[in-house]
Amino acid sequence: MASTTFANVISPMKLSFMFLLMSNMALFGVSDDTACVVTYPQAWIKVHPQDVDKIQFALNLEFLEAEFFLFGATGFGLDKNAPELAMGGPPPIGVRKANLDDVTERIINEFGLEEVGHLKAIIETLGGFPRPLLDLSSQNFAEVMDDAFGYKLYPPFDPYLNSINYMLASYVIPYMGLVGYVGTNPYLKGYKSKRLLAGLLGVESGQDAVIRTYLYERVDLVVHPYNQTVAKFTDRISQLRNRLAGCGIKDEGLIVPPQLGAEQRTSSNVLAANELSLSYDRSPAEILRVVYGSGKENVPGGFYPNGGNGKIAQDLLRSPK
Ligand SMILES: *[C@@H]1O[C@H](CO)[C@@H](O)[C@H](O)[C@H]1NC(C)=O
Q1: What is d(CA 312, CA 307) in angstroms, rounded to the nearest whole number?
Q2: All structural domains of the chain with their residue ranges
Q3: Which pLDDT tens digit goes with each residue over 68-98?
Q4: InterPro entries under this entry (predicted)?
């Protein structure tokens, strides 16, 4: 009786599809309620104790990105969106809403919310530390650009002035997260740590690619009133980061000499990568030398007037000068 009703409402095509599905499920030994659950061998460790500080180090960059993007798009940061994530750390200095066109504002708003997710993911998986003091003032970005060009830009570069300035300032940030995650990956032992890091790396490199593509579409645009093209800005910022980190070329602008391009055959460089087109990696010390603007992991400054938080940054801060 029941089977007649069944056959009446389910077409033969649907039945054969269900049969296929069921036989596949039998084949792979899964029942429908576990079909989407990834399982790991019992003996594998989720988060190795040695993973904790290494992944937590990234909070320093994630806090900076969250505040810069959230404020840039909306005029409010973590203290409005997710105050608990700041864990009592001081509010950032000098950050504000940027004067963005509609599309740019939506991209940046999305980036900001993604950073909130990243902060949550890291803190929920392996705990966190308070937000470090961040200097996101126009003056600080202006100093970065002056250092990049080797002379004082006039008027001082203001990241919040318009969309192109804001995206040029954004070029400075997620890339450091990307190379940091690539550098951390080989040291991780736990499967949950590795899964977390891959997820963070994927989105961080996605953000970098969006920023780079945005700028690439305007590569010949002359940034007013500096009489320097977008290409030149990216080249100078990348060279500055290479100089500060002191470990050779791990950073490249949007137009490069062909020997630095993919397969040494193009000067188009919408993505920065090594000779095998693999992302560059950086150690925590290299990253701190750049974001402190001092070229030294034990001399804080730049975006982090008091230095980064967490064991790795704090240990490096105390290392002999
Ligand atoms: C702008 O830069 C170009 C190329 O470097 C140069 O030829 C030109 O004279 C500059 N213009 C001004 C107004 O400085």
Answers
A1: 11
A2: 45-317
A3: 999 999 999 999 999 999 999 999 999 999 9
A4: Pigment-catalase-like
